[in-house]
Structure formats: C-alpha cells, structure tokens
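TA notes, week 10

Several of you asked for a full example with nothing omitted. So below is the full record: structure tokens for the whole chain, then the designed sequence directly under it. When grading your own attempts, check the secondary structure regions first.
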C-alpha cells in the first residue's frame, strides 16, 4: 500500500500563503487522482479540490476557488496545495487522499493530515 504523507502546515496570518505537499512512499502516485480535504474542529470533513493523474484536470470547492491551486510533480511523486489569501476560516487539518478514477470513486488511501492555522 502506498503511504501518503502531508507536510507544510503551520501558523500563518490572514492574507498569507502556505504550500502543502502530499508525498507518496512505497509506490507510485502517478496513476492516481489525488484529492485534498480539510476538517475543522467540530465540523465534518470537506472537499477542497482534486487533480487528475496527469495533472490536466482540477476542480475546487467554491470556498477556495481562486485562492487555492493544486498541482503535481509526478517525477517527485508529490502533489501540492498552494494556498493564498488565507482566511481564519481556512483553519483545519488538511488531508490528501488518492483514488484511481477522476470523476468518481472512493478515496481509499489517506494521509495523516497536517494542521493549518490562520490567525486574524
């Protein structure tokens, strides 16, 4: 089983930027769609965005559209979540997850998460 590890979280002021990474070990991530999700305290986990295996397709939740960008470097087995113009409501644990298909299917491989805290 490929293991996913998120990194890059931290504390940032509102308006700032962070870039999260999702790196795969023990196998390749190049054939997978990768999604980013987040979960704030007391709230359900929500979808942030996803990227297709080749990187040619992405889509985003309305709450982050225009501020967050997902990209990938398959040579490095890594997917990135660039977060700009951060808001306090973006505070959450961010997770990456992988699945085979882009349009549908179950994310069956999850990372452990990385905390992002945005101060006002």
């Amino acid at each position: 089983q490929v293991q996913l590890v998120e990194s890059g979280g931290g504390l940032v002021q509102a308006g700032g930027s962070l870039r999260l990474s999702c790196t795969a070990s023990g196998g390749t991530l190049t054939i997978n769609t990768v999604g980013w999700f987040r979960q704030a305290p007391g709230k359900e986990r929500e979808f942030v965005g996803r990227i297709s295996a080749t990187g040619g397709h992405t889509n985003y939740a309305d709450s982050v559209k225009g501020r967050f960008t997902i990209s990938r470097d398959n040579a490095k087995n890594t997917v990135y979540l660039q977060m700009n113009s951060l808001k306090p409501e973006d505070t959450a644990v961010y997770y990456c997850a992988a699945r085979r298909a882009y349009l549908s299917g179950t994310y069956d491989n999850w990372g452990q998460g990385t905390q992002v805290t945005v101060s006002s």
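The CA atoms of residues 16 and 80 lie 17 Å apart. Use that as a sanity check on your answer.
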